[in-house]
Specification:
By secondary structure, this protein is of the alpha/beta class. The protein folds into three domains: 7-220, HUPs (Rossmann fold); 247-321, Tyrosyl-Transfer RNA Synthetase (Orthogonal Bundle); 345-428, Roll (Structural Genomics Hypothetical 15.5 Kd Protein In mrcA-pckA Intergenic Region, Chain A), CATH 3.10.290. It has helices spanning 7-14, 23-29, 52-63, 94-108, 125-128, 133-139, 146-151, 153-161, 165-168, 170-185, 197-211, 248-256, 263-270, 275-279, 286-305, 307-321, 355-360, 364-370, 377-385, and strands at 19-20, 35-40, 67-72, 120-123, 187-193, 216-220, 233-234, 237-238, 350-354, 362-363, 389-391, 394-395, 402-403, 412-417, 421-428. The strands form four sheets. The chain has a six-stranded mixed sheet, with helices on both faces. The protein has a five-stranded mixed sheet with strand order 9-15-14-11-12. A hairpin with a 2-residue loop joins strand 11 (389-391) and strand 12 (394-395). The longest helix has 20 residues, at 286-305. The protein is elongated and about 90 Å long.
């Protein structure tokens, strides 16, 4: 069992929680190892970035000594969950669902350790496909109020466009899943997106009515970016977790392009870096925030595709866009290689420039002359125009681009002329 605080507090601190059925009761229950589950629809042979919050929740649960159960909706997938949808989902065949379920297990194994019973993957087709309908209605259906079901958010939206009877059964089936897992796997915690709240509460009620035992539910907020866009949606389409659908390089670049306002939040949700380091990001800006985006991209790519693919994406991005100087003091727990041209700062030539001058911004070609990297202004202009000048290992695009306080990383700015000549700028009062 992890010595860290209760996992429910960790969820809260990292921004995972939208609703909890009974905070105090669940917090007490989580003081001992327990099983929890999240359901995933096998509508494709890969999950996408929008599924990373529930996946990371399972990762945290496992790290705190609890047993994750991944439920693949092979049975409910034959019907389709109306939650959050304005039209009926496409119905898949048993063969398509079985193929997708197998692919999802392989994908989730990158995040979750399924060895020796540490986590389980189950398919609800095992107990739903052969249900006897009359028996199911008598045993399960009698516990459900149609009025309460129609009041659920998951049904309200579809009532406006038309909800068919097949979909109306979905809440009963998901509640029965929870009941089945409680009986066969001692699972009394279901988690999911906030659009699943009605279905989860229906499951806790069913377990209470059938067994007299208390079950718990947790929902996660539906994550959007600072621009209001849905997570994992781009102009080119969904960002998939599968390397065949979205290459590791494109996946890495998706995270590098994170909005400044989202960096701290996404580091909390999508990485395992310590919160005390992540909170320090709040005070950073400009170049230092860009460094954090690189670390975010690297960490999420490691979790999704492994370290080799993450390193390959990081180095490929460096070749295309220029390497980014990543000082050791920013998010130090990250395993991202801290590549500088010169590891020993004490031996790096240094020039001190006043804060007032840097605050105003100094044209790049003038800085390169002042630091001795170029012998004249004309030489500096040629170097920059030919693409051989860098600030913090990012290519300078215009000869008069201002070098300013915005370029500070830690207390320094790193300049490079060509492949070998480097110089450090430090601030002075």
């Amino acid at each position: 069992m992890s010595q860290e605080r209760n996992v429910l507090d960790v969820f809260n601190d990292r921004g995972f929680l939208a609703q909890v059925t009974d905070w105090e009761g669940l917090e007490t229950r989580l003081e001992q190892p327990m099983s929890c589950y999240i359901g995933f629809d096998p509508t494709a042979d890969s999950l996408h970035v929008g599924s990373l919050v529930p996946i990371m929740a399972l990762v945290h649960m496992q790290q705190h000594g609890h047993r994750p159960i991944v439920l693949v909706g092979g049975g409910t997938g034959l019907i389709g969950d109306p939650s959050g949808k304005t039209e009926m989902r496409k119905l898949l065949s048993l063969e398509e669902i079985a193929y997708n379920a197998s692919a999802l297990q392989r994908q989730l194994s990158q995040f979750i350790d399924f060895s020796e019973g540490r986590a389980l993957l189950v398919n609800n087709a095992e107990w739903l496909v052969d249900l006897r309908y009359i028996e199911f209605l008598r045993d399960i259906g009698r516990h459900f109020s149609v009025n309460r079901m129609l009041a659920a958010e998951s049904y309200k939206l579809r009532l406006e466009t038309g909800l068919n009877f097949i979909e109306f059964n979905y809440m009963l089936l998901q509640a029965f899943d929870f009941y089945h897992l409680s009986q066969h796997y001692d699972c009394f915690l279901q988690m999911g997106g906030n659009d699943q709240w009605g279905n989860i509460v229906a499951g806790t009620d069913l377990i209470r009515r059938k067994t007299g035992k208390t079950a718990h539910g947790v929902t996660f907020p539906l994550i959007t970016t600072a621009t209001g866009a849905k997570m994992g949606k781009t102009a080119a389409g969904a960002v998939w977790l599968s390397a065949e659908r979205t290459t590791p390089f494109d996946f890495y670049q998706y995270w590098v392009n994170t909005e400044d306002q989202d960096v701290e939040r996404f580091l909390s949700l999508y990485t395992l870096l310590p919160l005390e380091e992540i909170r320090a990001v709040h005070a950073l800006k400009a170049q230092e925030l860009n460094v954090c985006k690189t670390i975010l991209a690297y960490e999420v790519t490691v979790l999704t595709h492994g370290q080799d693919q993450a390193l390959a994406a990081y180095h490929a991005a460096g070749k295309v866009f220029g390497k980014r100087f990543v000082p050791r003091e920013i998010l130090p727990s990250s395993t991202l290689p801290r590549e500088t041209v010169e590891e020993d700062w004490e031996s790096t030539p240094t020039t001190a420039i006043g804060i007032s001058r840097l605050s105003e911004g100094i044209p790049a070609f003038e800085v390169f002359v002042e630091t001795g990297l170029c012998g004249s202004r004309s030489a500096a202009r040629r170097l920059i125009e030919q693409g051989g000048a860098y600030v913090n290992q990012e290519r300078i695009r215009h000869f008069d681009e201002p070098i300013s306080m915005q370029h500070l990383v830690g207390q320094s700015i790193l300049l490079k002329a060509g492949k070998k000549k480097i110089h450090r700028i430090q601030t002075k009062d």
